[in-house]
């Protein structure tokens, strides 16, 4: 084994020990294929009111601007597929938000991995990212061979479907690089056919401004009336395109106790949600990603579904 192979192997073994589903590595360089795609997507206003998507265009495409001296992008997947889901008679929350806010959970794991690299390999400069910086997570994960981008624009893996978080370490250490895998969507259009708001405007292109997740989490204004009756009871996020994907037959429950939902969350009925107080909201969603929509946002979403 040469030095690069040894370092690569050490990092992947430690990532596994920390509970990551998989780890792939690619060279930190300009994302040539993504540049025109991102430009078109923004030009067509598919980001809606998510104006932050327009910022740092160059940084999104070139990790060496984001992390000067960067040599490698270490992409990591963390499973969040639950073993229990909400009560049938309930407004729905996206599965990723059942437990503790993933930002906290993953950041701690990434810090541990960076610490390990510094201890075992030597002083390595770099930064950890969990979808809160201008990094094209899915593009890097696909480039690192962790899966392919599906027609619903989520990363898909033959072994594990798509119910996982993606995170990265961008570091100034040269490593052995993985190669992309092939697309296995074939002629399947399950996600396109099932999307309640027709947000998947063509295979591999999602109009973010039509997505239920956008309406229920990102949009601060009133939800447009034309989407009444189309939410299928989703009040925070939406999993429809993932739930119908044949590759998610291979999803297995996560092993991360911090992602386990509170039993009372799973037991809530529509009636309970209709009458939720701010006090219950705070208790139920302490350290949860659902806090992003705030109490008033959640009430707005429920009211919109009820008025449909």
UniProtKB/TrEMBL annotation:
Pathway: tRNA modification; tRNA-queuosine biosynthesis. Cob(II)alamin binds at residues 60, 131, 155, 166, 213, 238-239. Pfam families: Fer4_16 (PF13484), QueG_DUF1730 (PF08331). The keyword Iron-sulfur applies. Its cofactor is cob(II)alamin; [4Fe-4S] cluster. PROSITE patterns: 4FE4S_FER_1, 4FE4S_FER_2. GO terms for molecular function: 4 iron, 4 sulfur cluster binding; cobalamin binding; epoxyqueuosine reductase activity; metal ion binding. It comes from Planktosalinus lacus. Binds 2 [4Fe-4S] clusters per monomer. The lineage of its organism: Bacteria, Pseudomonadati, Bacteroidota, Flavobacteriia, Flavobacteriales. This is Epoxyqueuosine reductase. It catalyses: epoxyqueuosine(34) in tRNA + AH2 = queuosine(34) in tRNA + A + H2O. It is found in: Cytoplasm. Residues 173-205 form the 4Fe-4S ferredoxin-type domain.
């Amino acid at each position: 084994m040469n030095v690069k192979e040894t370092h690569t192997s050490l990092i992947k073994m430690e990532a596994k020990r920390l509970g990551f589903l998989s780890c792939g590595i690619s060279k930190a360089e300009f994302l040539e294929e993504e540049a025109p795609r991102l430009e078109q997507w923004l030009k067509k206003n598919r980001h809606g009111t998510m104006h932050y998507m327009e910022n740092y265009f160059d940084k999104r495409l070139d990790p060496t601007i984001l992390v000067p001296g960067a040599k490698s992008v270490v992409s990591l997947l963390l499973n969040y597929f639950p073993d229990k889901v909400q009560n049938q008679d309930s407004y729905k929350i996206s599965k990723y938000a059942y437990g503790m806010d993933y930002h906290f959970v993953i950041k701690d794991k990434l810090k541990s991995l960076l610490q390990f690299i510094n201890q075992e390999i030597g002083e390595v400069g770099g930064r950890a990212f969990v979808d809160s910086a201008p990094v094209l997570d899915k593009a890097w994960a696909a480039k690192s061979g962790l899966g392919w981008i599906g027609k619903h624009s989520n990363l898909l893996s033959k072994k594990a479907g798509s119910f996982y978080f993606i995170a990265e370490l961008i570091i100034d250490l040269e490593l052995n690089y993985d190669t992309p895998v092939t697309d296995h969507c074939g002629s399947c259009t399950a996600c396109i056919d099932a999307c309640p708001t027709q947000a998947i405007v063509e295979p591999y292109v999602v109009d973010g401004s039509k997505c239920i997740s956008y309406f229920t989490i990102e949009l601060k204004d009133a939800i447009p009336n034309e989407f009444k009756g189309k939410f299928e009871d989703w009040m925070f996020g939406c999993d429809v395109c993932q739930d119908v994907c044949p590759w998610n037959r291979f999803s297995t429950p996560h092993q991360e106790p911090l992602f386990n939902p509170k039993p009372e969350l799973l037991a809530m009925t529509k009636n309970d949600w209709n009458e939720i107080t701010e006090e219950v909201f705070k208790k139920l969603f302490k350290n949860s990603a659902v806090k992003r929509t705030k109490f008033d946002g959640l009430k707005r979403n429920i009211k919109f579904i009820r008025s449909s």
